[in-house]
From TrEMBL:
InterPro entries: Mem_transp_PIN-like, PILS2/6. Its main location: membrane. Residues 212-235 are annotated as: Disordered. Keywords: Auxin signaling pathway, Membrane, Transmembrane, Transmembrane helix. It comes from Stylosanthes scabra. The gene is PILS6_3. This is Protein PIN-LIKES 6. It comes from the Eukaryota. The keyword Transmembrane helix applies. It is found in: Membrane. It is a multi-pass membrane protein. Residues 217-228 have a biased composition (Polar residues).
Length: 433
């Protein structure tokens, strides 16, 4: 019995998948190769970025990496999204893809619930309870999945078929969910990472003055928040001038004031970022047949613009990986999280969250929510639950004053994600094929 099991396992290793018959499955070696090689490519390019940023080469210093990140975020990534999503999307497809943004929301909810449970067990240092929840709950649904799909589809032996269709469909599916991810990031994450009542995450530093704290002479120091007290008077004078004019003018002023209030309150400046604008434009233009033929088809008069975006978009993958590898050169830094909390975040994000995501996607498939016979669609949904912590959450953490701890988490999560992503990809490919 045992010998027969070993024999069957060895025969499966030797089988190259050609004689899979009606099962059509991949051999174990093929599955490992398909899953591990893209991760190996990602790791190689990140290592080159790490080498370029090291003190021995120093071609990518911190200022250079900042410029490279800015170039990727404001130009290369939007170009990739616009060209790939615009070519792939139609109004019918957008209606069929409705579960992608829902999956992003469910991923954040399930991840945050797991993060809350882990944080309740581990009990991180005082100001970092919500920080722990967020860094377990919010995964990277943009850059890393795009890199993984590009590396996977580049191989002609990939299980999804034609390399070009594989890349176009995968990029379109991932891009279609990014706008929801950005809203979650700059609303939910932004509020969750608010500083504690002490006003800073560096609670050991007792030399920081409190807002409105009394000086030695008994007077109170005016904080920046209390200085613009003249603003209401200016608003009153503006309202008096408006009332003295026509009623139409007063309405226009009210609309402007409401828009300015909403713009500030809803953090629209943070939400409306270049990749989101590119996604909205691509969906809007791609959903209208006339505009799609005018811009996105190869013989269209304006296709030169799309083609230019495609050329620029191809540079996104190597640039983001070089920048990501370079960012790891600083190491984990002086984090206050401690080994226990950092290990819990890594374990929660890379080990506990993906099974919950697998259950969500399989349930949606059984309920008929997913397009039939589209394995790339299902694969994208699955990897949305299996990615490391979002790099952009580190940018939000930096804004909120806990950038050092976020950098430490991102460093270790991305190191271990090389192995976890390979393992989950092998599992997903074996489930799908």
């Amino acid at each position: 019995m045992g010998t027969g099991g070993v024999g069957r396992f060895l025969m499966m290793l030797q089988n190259e998948g050609a004689g899979g018959g009606s099962g059509g499955g991949e051999s174990l070696l093929d599955s490992i190769k398909i899953a591990v090689l893209p991760i190996a490519k990602v790791f190689t390019m990140c290592f080159l970025g790490f080498l370029m940023a090291s003190k021995y080469v120093n071609i990518l210093p911190a200022s250079g990496r900042k410029l490279l990140n800015g170039l990727v975020f404001t130009l290369l990534l939007p170009c990739l999204i616009f060209s790939q999503l615009g070519q792939a999307v139609t109004l019918e497809k957008m209606l069929a893809w409705w579960f992608i943004p829902v999956n992003v929301v469910l991923s954040s909810i399930s991840g945050s619930i797991i993060g809350f449970i882990v944080a309740s067990i581990v009990r991180p240092p005082y100001p970092f309870f919500k920080f722990t929840i967020v860094h377990i709950g919010i995964g990277n649904i943009g850059n890393v999945p795009l890199v993984l799909i590009a590396a996977l589809c580049r191989d002609t032996s990939n299980p999804f078929g034609d390399s070009e269709k594989c890349s176009t469909d995968g990029t379109a599916y991932i891009s279609f969910g990014q706008w929801v991810g950005a809203i979650i990031l700059y609303t939910y994450v932004f509020n969750m990472l608010a500083p504690p009542p002490e006003g800073t995450f560096d609670i050991d530093n007792e030399t920081l003055p409190l807002k409105g704290a009394p000086k030695n002479d008994g007077s109170t120091e005016q904080s920046p928040q209390t200085t613009p007290l003249l603003a209401p008077k200016e608003e009153v004078t503006q309202k008096e001038e408006v009332i003295s004019t026509e009623s139409n003018a007063s309405r226009s002023w009210k609309i402007k004031d409401i828009w300015a209030f909403l713009y500030e309150k809803l953090k629209l400046k943070q939400i409306i970022q270049p990749p989101i604008i590119a996604s909205i434009l691509a969906m809007g233009l791609g959903a209208v047949p006339f505009l799609k033929k005018l811009i996105f088809t190869p013989d269209a008069p304006l296709f030169f613009f799309t083609d230019s975006c495609m050329i620029l978009g191809e540079a996104m993958i190597p640039c983001i990986l070089l920048a990501l590898g370079g960012n790891l050169v600083d190491g984990p830094g002086s984090s206050k999280l401690g080994f226990r909390t950092t290990a819990a975040i890594i374990f929660g994000r890379l080990v506990l969250v993906p099974p919950a995501g697998l259950a969500i996607v399989m349930t949606a498939d059984k309920l008929g929510f997913l397009p039939p016979d589209d394995k790339m669609f299902r694969f994208v949904l699955l990897i949305q639950h299996s990615m490391p912590t979002s790099v952009l959450s580190g940018a939000v953490a930096n804004l909120r004053g806990c950038g050092r701890e976020a950098a430490a988490v991102l460093f270790w999560v991305h190191i271990f994600a090389v192995f976890s992503m390979a393992a989950w990809t092998i599992l997903y490919i074996n489930i799908l094929f």
